[in-house]
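Model it.
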Amino acid sequence: MKYYLDEDLSPKISEILRKFHIDAISAHEVGMLQVNDLEQLERSSSEGRCLITRNKNDFIRLTVQFFNEHRSHAGVLIIPHTLPGDKFSVIAKAIIKYHTKHPEDELEAYTIDFLET
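Modeled.
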């Protein structure tokens, strides 16, 4: 599975993930800063990447919008706020654990999953 980290997550997390041979890019790394959530989801979808974010409410709403418009996306993985945003290694380890359980499988269209802490 390939991942796209929303701008609300540090690009340091994607750097850590790549050290573990996980295909991950960050909105920071591809110049997608200060764009709206719809554009972030469209970017991740166009590349077949699961979007990882802490922004639960907006991406649940956008998933419903995509469903109603018959537009699929490659999934959304929600990072809970119980994982502090400045704990890059902790977040990366949780994503690695998730990835191990879902190594090459793309999430089904419209899937929203929650990272376990």
